Structure formats: structure tokens, C-alpha cells
Amino acid sequence: MRAASYSHGNQLSLLHRGEQFFPALIGACDAAHSEIYIETYIFALDATGMRVKAALLHAARRGVAVHLLVDWLGTGDDTIAQLRTELEPHGVRLLTFNPWFRRGIVRMHRKIAVIDQRIAFLGGLNINDDLIADDGSAQPLPAARWDFAVSVSGPLVQTIHREVIAQWQRLGRRPLRTRLQSFREYVSQRQAWRAVQVAEAALVVRDNLRNRKAIQRALLQALGRARSSALLVTPYFAPGRKLRKAMMHAAQRGVEVVLLIGVGQFVMQDAVAQSFYPRLVRSGVTIVEYRRTQLHGKLAVIDGEWATVGSSNFDGLSLFVNHEANIVVRDAAFATDLQRVIYAALAEGVVITQADVARLSLPRRAWNRFAYGLYRLALQVLTLGSYTR
Questions:
Q1: Percent of the chain predicted with pLDDT > 90
Q2: What is the pTM of this model?
Q3: Is 137 buried (19+), middle (13-18) or exposed (0-12) by CB count in 10 A?
């Protein structure tokens, strides 16, 4: 596994919800003078997507090299066809990740933008309106989707830029000889894993060649070193055995472990997550369900010093199958800011108590176990057994 590239001297800004993220992204695109790279799972042609699309068109028309990578499943074939028709004649290069499942089930779930190798954005926000549900129903949400991105300037931008270039090159048409040479270069330059505390910020990615367990390992190391608190936020919770055990072990040794989880979007996903509640609660993990609106942020803060923001859910697909990207930060001020907004969300949530777990009906318990059994079987097949190891 390739080591993460840690660096000092970066300037990071936490962007909460689309109201902070999209003006920053569009402003950076409007100021671009040489190149724009954007990766997103969903690019919706709603009001928000149209604003971003207009910014990309304006940039391309003034000579900026614009590259857009979207996931085929997340964005949809019809939307991709429309984007291609409207963008490519003006010079925007558009690639689609894994159309028609030609590369198996893997999805490109990353959300990254790099502009002029000067500023980068990374997080959980897709290119879509955060007041509209993103599950295909197009239903209005009661409040803006709860999500985060980070803007980055400084040395880490070059690391993120190299990663998006490598992703673009991997998906483009290249002769077999070129692909083999790239792989040889990777093997010759490979380094051992380094713990995250040695530097302030790092890009940690998950793919199915070089970095199969990088994001999970970063989380496991952080939980293993936790002394006082661990705040974990995810819309979908179904991690493998190792991460669940790390959470429970931390709680059992006196760490305040709090899991903020999104509910109400997918019935099956809720059942899978709830199948873990009894053991987690018994071991001392505090579970809080966020029901005010769709929770989409994927965050963690450990001991008010270590933090991560990115695209990776705490579930089997993100940790074992999909392409993901997180930023890991060791900085007390940044972690404190992130911790503050997590505590605000926790105050809006509903705590799951031992009594709540005990009151679950027998049919509900059976349904939860059945849902997890199906999920576990599917992930065992998709990951060749890695999900439960």
C-alpha cells in the first residue's frame, strides 16, 4: 500500500453545507486561468448543478483546460449524455467512471476539485442541490443536507493534484505497455505506511490497486490511540468487524465514543445499522440518530486533535469496494471547529438508549438480522472475504 503524503504549511477552511461550498467552488472556477479538475459521484442538472456547469463553460471558453469526471451510476446515463452534449463542444473533457459496470461493481465515490494547482476542495458534497433528496425521489428536504467539504491551499494541493491526474490517466485510453510501466514505477517508489501524527495534513485515498485499506487503517490507528473522546459521523453505518471492535474497545477503556448516524433514507440500510446497536450500546458507545434532515457528512474527530473529512462512509462499500478520498488533519484548532459543529448536530439528534434497544420487537430484531445477513453475504462476495476479516 502506498504511503500517504503528509505535509506542513497548509491552509484549510471547513465548508459546511452547499451554502458555503458551492460559492467557494464556483468562485475558484471563475478565477481559474489554466486548468480545472473535478471528480464527483453525482452531477445533477438542478439549479446548483446548472450554476457549476455554467462556471465550467465560462472557464473553458476563456481557454482553461476543464476536466470533469463523473460516476456513471451516481450521475446517470441520461444526465451524462446531456452534459456531454452541452460541455464537450466548448472544450470541456468529460470522462465517465465504470459505465454499465464494465469494471465490476466498484464506483468512483470521491468528491474532489483542483483548480490551477493552487486550491483544492475535498469532502462529501456532490454537485447537487442540498435542499433536494439525492436518492432519486427528488423530494424536498426539510433543511439543507448536513455535509462538509474542506478547501485546501499549500503543499497538499500538489498531492491531491497528482492523485486526480493519476485517476484521469488510469481511466483514459493507454496502451498496455504504458500501463505496465506506470505500475512498475509505483512498485519501485512504494514506501511503508507512516502514522498520521507525524504531520499536519494528509490525503488518504482508497482504491482497488494501491490503497485497499488506507482509510480504514487511518481510522483504526486514530481509535487505537484515542485517550478521551472519539466523535464519528456517517450517513451509512455498516463497517467491517475490525472497525466495530475498535469502537467498542475504545469505549470499554473509558473513551467517550459517540456515533452520529443518518437515518430515514434507505429502509434496508437503517436495518443493517440497527443490527449493530445492541452490542455497541452494551459496550458503552453512544449512538445518536440524526433525523432533522438528510445527514451526508463523513467525519471523525479524535481527542480534539485528529480529524478527518471526506467521501468515505463507515460502511462496507466505502471501506472495501469504492474509490474514496479523505483528508486527515492533525491540528487542534481545525479539530475544535469541526467538533463544535458535530456537538451542535448531536444536540439536534435522538440518543438511542439501552431501553430503546430492549424495546425492539422480535419481528424488528429478526428483520435487522436478516438485513445484515444479506448485506454481509453481498460484501463477502464483493470483497472476497475481506469484509469480515
A1: 85
A2: 0.91
A3: exposed
Catalytic residue, candidates 109, 161, 242, 323: 109
Q: Which residues face 328 on adjacent strands?
A: 202, 308
Find the catalytic residue in 111, 161, 242, 323. Answer: 111
Annotation marks residue 296 as catalytic: yes
Angstrom distance (rounded) from CA 32 to CA 117: 10
The one catalytic residue among 16, 67, 161, 298: 298
Residue 69, number of CB atoms within 10 A of its CB: 21
Residue 111 among the catalytic residues: yes
pLDDT digits (tens, 9 = 90+) for 240-264: 999 999 999 999 999 999 999 999 9
Is 135 known to be catalytic? no
The pLDDT of residue 186 is: 41
Catalytic residue among 67, 242, 296, 323: 296
Establish whether 249 is a catalytic residue: no
Q: What is the CA radius of gyration of the chain?
A: 20
Catalytic residue among 46, 58, 116, 331: 116
Is 298 catalytic? The answer is: yes
- Give tens-digit pLDDT for 254-293: 999 999 999 999 999 999 999 999 999 999 999 999 999 9
Q: Is 303 annotated in the active site?
A: yes
Output phi, psi for 204, to 5 deg.
-125, 120
